[in-house]
Amino acid sequence: MTTVQSPPAPPTAMRPRVVAGTGLYAVLAANAAVVTYFFVDVGFGASNALLVLGRLAGLYGALLMAFQLLLVARLPWLDRRIGMDRLTSWHRWTGFGILWTLLAHAVFITFGYADSSGLDPVNQLVDLAETVEGVLRAVAALVIILVVGAVSGRFARRRLAYETWHFIHLYTYLAVVLAFTHQVAVGTTFTASSAATAYWYALWGVALGSVLVGRLVLPLWRNWRHQLRVSAVVPESDNVVSIHITGRDLDRLPARAGQFFLWRFLTKDRWWQANPFSLSAAPDGRGLRLTAKAAGDGSAALRHLEPGTRVFAEGPYGAFTALHRTRPESLLIAGGVGVTPIRALLEELAGHAVVIYRVASDRDAVLYDELRELAHAKGAELHLVTGPVAPDRLAPAELIRMVPDIAERDVFLCGPPPMMNAVLGSLRALDVPKPQIHFERFSLAG
């Protein structure tokens, strides 16, 4: 696509993130109301309150599972408005909601039947698993969800390799299938009427269809259509390299400055490994460029890629784009290799811009010559801030000195997490309105 000069949204316009977020919450609330209606319409039909609570918890748990599939589907319309990092946060909290509702379902149902039969809860659960169709599958699904919930906690997540965590996480899809078949087998709420049955299958059809389209069909279609290949490998410094990529019909690829892709370079030893890298130049319809720092074996191997290597790219992802502008003027703050989406954004943004590039020393300022030429061409101000972490050179007093009208600008921020956290604190201290602050962390739902 040709580089788009993006003006800010009118002051009275609803922000895209608000529209998409409100829409998602409205969809969840509407479906919760429908589920409650069908549950009440069937009648409680239970011998005690525990069974009623257990069935209702199971229905809400199943609804949250369908909603979770929508969050992990990576649908472009949602992603470019909400952002993958925020969708991942919602995915995390929805996952814990599923865990607790399904656990409540199992406990209430087991104790409810135990109260009626006179059996102890353990023997009652064994009896249900042996005599009622679908219960054993439900137990297996709950065990999987408990394991996934345990490894998703912060304590375990910090100690597991990403590949291990992701492999365990994939079993959630098996849990979804097991839970769905259990619901079909014993879910009286959704077999009591043709309308309820049609609703249930439509709900899960949309949820599963979204995952199929977003995670499989769309990436396969785009890569078949665009036929991406490495055209050049350009070292930017001792540990940073730029990869130039060409392909077919790139003017039809809906990528914007600030977004990232999951890149797979189809070599014999790296085809299975996907890494998230931002575009370091605004898409122009002729080629794409990413710039990466060697932070592990995968990114270090990029330096040795050969021109002509096939590329499989999933995306574009991310809401760190000019779509969310609210002001005519901008401040772009980059730290280290976080300059890559900032450099691309500067190329696309219209209006006066100030760029602050924070690095430890001059030699760490990758793409600085490009950034300086681009800033000169667009009439932007560029500040290179160097030196050790302490004292904080992006403290409130320093920011207001460089950008006196900072509260009147959109602020785009990208860099290492400690730096981003410190700058966000400075922006709050300077009373920069939250809707004017734009940042995104590499984080993938599901």
Provide tags for this entry:
15 helices, 11 strands, 14% strand, 3 domains, FAD, elongated, 51% helix, membrane, Rossmann fold, oxidoreductase, 3-stranded antiparallel sheet, 446 residues, FAD-bd_FR_type, 5-stranded parallel sheet, alpha/beta, Elongation Factor Tu (Ef-tu), domain 3
Describe the model:
The chain is an alpha/beta fold. The protein has three domains: 207 residues; 91 residues, Elongation Factor Tu (Ef-tu), domain 3 (Beta Barrel); 118 residues, Nucleotide-binding domain of ferredoxin-NADP reductase (FNR) module (Rossmann fold, 3-Layer(aba) Sandwich), CATH 3.40.50.80. 51% of the residues lie in helices and 14% in strands. Strands 9-8-7-10-11 form a five-stranded parallel sheet, sandwiched between helices. The model has no long low-confidence stretch (mean pLDDT 89).
